[in-house]
Amino acid sequence: MSRVHDMGGRFGDGPVKPEPQDAPVFAEEWHARALAITLACGALGQWNIDTSRHARERLAPLDYTRFSYYEKWLAGLASLLVEKQVLSAEDLAGAAAAAGDGTGAEGVAPHPLAARALKAADVAAALAKGGPADRPSPIVPSFAPGDAVRCRRPGGNRLVEGGHTRLPTYAVGATGQILRLHGSHVLPDSAAHGLGEAPEPLYAVVFPADALWSHAEHPGDEVVLDLWQSYLEPV
Amino acid sequence: MPHDHADAPHSLLPPDPALRVKALETLLTEKGLIDPAALDEIIDTYQNRIGPANGARVVARAWSDPDFKAALLADADPVLAELGYYGRQGEHMVVVENTPEQHNMVVCTLCSCYPWPLLGIPPGWYKSDAYRSRAVREPRRVLAEFGVTLPEGTSVRVWDSTAELRYLVLPMRPKDTEGLSEDALAALVSRDSMIGTDIPEGPR
């Protein structure tokens, strides 16, 4: 089954409310802090982008639905910090008590990972370096542009029950056409769970809107998804 | 294991989100795991240095220089890297061109993937449930909510960023912009036009 984050095509969300183009980058000061703390903790090297996406999307549906964007980030970060044993549950509970009475935590010992903490002088280089996902792969591309392909059914992570995947439910079982080959990329279904990068060919696949939706808005419309080879089968 | 929790760690933190951030920041700082000066640097970068002006410069140059545009559409990464527009959430860029026949629009239905080096941090609406759920199913109704109506003969191609590819829409150059400098052209390029939810207009 899908998780609550997999919402492409869902009904009932109401209108989109555009903001002015010049609205502040961060609507609240704490949004900026939440983003910065998350990026800085990522630099500790205890997880990858797929792990962190999965940490957000496997929040309880009730939490995922009620949390704003950066609250999801914070909740995912708290999960990762505890699961990767960077912090303990007691640490978090203690921090909450300290923040509540304004005293700050007392007598905290330096952390074994402290040497890895991102320094201000290294921020620009770290952000500029990014985290490219392309890798050499022994897996030969099975498809070429123009080939008809179908997204595997059932969808979902084939390695880990309930695990991370980047095949949206709305495309499961749908037939499309290879638009382009992006080379080989890290497979999130594996990398999110510490099972290795398992790179494989990645394609842009174009789907006619009426292959995805019972009531397509317009006959000529299309949706393009980036899909890994193991998500696809030949038609 | 997917680690489904009923007693998630975040529930140990204060209920108020601003206080939750403060509690985490204080704890992580005291343990030496984060440096508040580094946080300030990250925030300054995305608040003041990296934003849609980068993307607008790329679009204006593509409108002005056919060779640049051809190179950008063929393989954006080296072209953008040369301009310094590379980095986190922009490691693999693809630029897609709007034409009278086809309008492009970008979404990430699974989270909110977005080309940070060219457009900065995504706006709230891009991250909203409404945009994520509806952009793929009814792009034209969504466009109407942005005040955009496409001609009958224009098809819509929605790019759902399901991998580490990030998409930038190259809008059509507006009429009556002959002779404008790249800077003047860049001023016509809105953030939303590079996501595909706006159409640039010529000078008034």
From TrEMBL, chain B:
GO terms for molecular function: nitrile hydratase activity; transition metal ion binding. InterPro entries: CN_Hdrase_a/SCN_Hdrase_g_sf (IPR036648), CN_Hdrtase_a/SCN_Hdrlase_g (IPR004232), CN_Hdrtase_asu/SCN_Hdrlase_gsu (IPR023900), Nitrile_hydratase_asu (IPR018141). The keyword Lyase applies. It comes from the Bacteria. Keywords: Lyase, Metal-binding. Its EC number is 4.2.1.84. Residues 17-197 form the Nitrile hydratase alpha/Thiocyanate hydrolase gamma domain. It catalyses: an aliphatic primary amide = an aliphatic nitrile + H2O. SUPFAM superfamilies: Nitrile hydratase alpha chain. The keyword Signal does not apply. It is an enzyme of class 4 (lyase). NCBIfam families: nitrile_alph. Belongs to the nitrile hydratase subunit alpha family. This is nitrile hydratase. It comes from Phaeobacter inhibens. The lineage of its organism: Bacteria, Pseudomonadati, Pseudomonadota, Alphaproteobacteria, Rhodobacterales.
